[in-house]
Each structure stands twice: as structure tokens, then as C-alpha cells.
Amino acid sequence: MDSDTLYIIPARGGSKGIPRKNIKPLGGRPLIAYSIDVARALAPDSHIILSTDDDEIADTARDLGLKVDYMRPPSLATDTAGSREVIIDAMDYADRAGIAYNRVVLLQPTSPFRKVEDVENALTLYNEDIDMVVSVTEATSNPYYNCFETDLVTGFLHVSKGDGLYTRRQDAPPAWEYNGAVYVINPRSIRLMPLGAFPRRVPSVMPRERSLDLDTPLDWAVAELMIKEQNG
Q1: Which of 75, 116, 148, 176 stands the most exposed, by the fewest C-beta atoms within 10 Å?
Q2: Residue 22: CA atoms inside 13 Å, Cβ hemisphere, count?
Q3: Residue span of the structural domain in which 124 resides
Q4: 64 in a domain, yes or no?
Q5: What's residue 78's pLDDT?
């Protein structure tokens, strides 16, 4: 078991796109169960922190077998609370509790199709000389091929990057987008700056079928269909 890593699962109570989504049943299980399963397959429970402000979410995690002693303060449970502050508060709790770690893994509950191997792949790419390993998938729009901007002077469209002469997508340089599934974070780096300011980010590629991030009712409907298909 991985006792060098602190696993943080952020699950605040408020959710506007999909109300109560963190404990909403998906395929017959509360959504947070999928992330808890992955974390427990990799680390001892002592190194897993569910970060929530919500008693019902905490009780759901306890029903799944995870001990929940830490509760996120209300000031970090608003729509404007940033991931950095949430992560640092959980790290501060771990430090006070004497939990030793040299890297942090953030597992957002909204990535139910993430597998243990996806986290393991990201962990193998991490070292203390970088700021973060982040899971990505191939972007749906490529800035060299089919992603355009409007010229501020003429109002005409122009390709975002390059000269616009690529005629086949596969010939264009690959472009990646965060899929929200796995973040392996250097603890020193996040105390110095926000995640978006990290200059040393390494991509860990995941397939699109495991990269669905649940943010809207449509995303949820797609996830239900995927699970139904997986279960035959």
C-alpha cells in the first residue's frame, strides 16, 4: 500500500449543475464510492481524506467503510472557494494528525470511470523536481486544426495556432485537455502558488472513455448509459 501519498477526495455539499451529485446514486452506488474505491485500493485509510462540509456526505463515506474525522470549514465550501485552499486545509489537517506524506493525489468524485491503473500511471511520472502530474485526454478541438478565434480588427475567423494549412487532424500537433480525474501534486509547490501557475506540469494520458467528468445532467445521463452497457 502507498503510505507516501496523501489522497484527498473533495466533495462539498453544494452542487448547482447536478444537485447533491456527490452522493447521488450512479449505477446503484453513491458517486463518491467510485473514488473511495480507487483510493482504498492504493493507500491505507489513514492516508485518505474526504474533504466535505456536509454531514450526509460524510455519513455516506462512513457507510462505505471510510473513517471520516476531518470536516471542511464552511468558508471553503462556497462556490468561490478554490481547489488550492481546499487542498492546503486538508494537508494542514494531515500535518496536525501526524500523517507523513511526500506527494498529494487529488481524486475528484466527478470522474467515476477513472481506474486504479490511471492513478498508478500518473504516480510513475511524478518526481520531486516537478510541480504536478495531471491526467489529460486528447482535446476535442485542436488549436492547429479546428479551433478558431475571431480577429479583433476584421471580425474574421482565424485558426488559433499555426498557419491553418493542416488538412487532416492526425497531421496536426496533438493537443490535450485536463479531464479532472487525477492530480499528483508536489506539496511544496501548492503552498507556493495555485495549480494554474505551476510551470512544471507533466501530462498523464487517459483514454476518452474513462475521462467523462460529470458536470451537467447530460453528463450524468451518458454515465448511466455507459454503466448500463458495462454491466451488460
Answers
A1: 75
A2: 25
A3: 5-138+175-221
A4: yes
A5: 74
DSSP 104-143: EEE--TT-TT--HHHHHHHHHH--TTSSEEEEEEE-SS-T
Q: Is residue 107 part of a domain?
A: yes
User: What is the C-alpha to C-alpha distance for residues 35 and 53, in angstroms, rounded to an integer?
Assistant: 17
Sort 110 into a burial class: Cβ within 10 Å, 0-12 / 13-18 / 19+.
Answer: buried
DSSP 8-state assignment for residue 173: P
On whether both 157 and 133 belong to a single domain, the answer is no
Helix and strand counts by DSSP (H, E) for the chain: 6, 10
- Angle, alpha carbons 129-132-134 (nearest 5°): 145
- State the Cα–Cα distance between residues 223 and 104, nearest whole angstrom: 27
DSSP assignment of 44-60 equals -GGGEEEE-S-HHHHHH
Same domain, 145 and 209: no
> Do 35 and 97 belong together in one domain?
yes
Confidence class for position 79, pLDDT limits 50, 70, 90: confident
31 within domain boundaries: yes
pLDDT, tens only, 34-74? 999 999 999 999 999 999 999 999 999 999 999 999 999 88
